Amino acid sequence: MTDIEPGRDALLRLIGQHDGGVLVTLRRDGRPQLSNVNHAYYPDEGVIRVSVTEDRAKTRNLRRDPRASYHVTSDDRWAWTAADVTAELTPSAAGTHDAVVEQLITLYRDVQGEHPDWDDYRRAMVRDRRVVLTLRIDHVYGRPRA
Question: What is the per-residue burial (b if ≥16 Cβ within 10 Å, else e) of 37-69?
């Protein structure tokens, strides 16, 4: 049974209680492409943020078509939330102190806490051509915990 937007707060709470989910993007032929990713949820903004690299399929797919879905489950997989989202992508990190790297640092802290070597992290973000993916939540559905 699927509950369509009843208990919206409970559905969104599940996203905030976990730091991982499945991002579903659309390939050029219309088929879904799924990726397991880590995320941070920002309830005041109604968005989910993810660090991705410029050269990945999910990034290319989202630059072409920003429509996506995001799926999170409880540890026992009984409760779940699916969110229809619209993606926004920053440019790739270009310099160790640019705005994108600063956003990536905030995102890292929100998901993992402190990094042991922020200078090394900054260099890696530029080398890996990291991007901040923001998923604006348009609609949620699922099965909140009873």
Answer: bebbbeeeeebbbbbbeeeeebbebbeeebebb
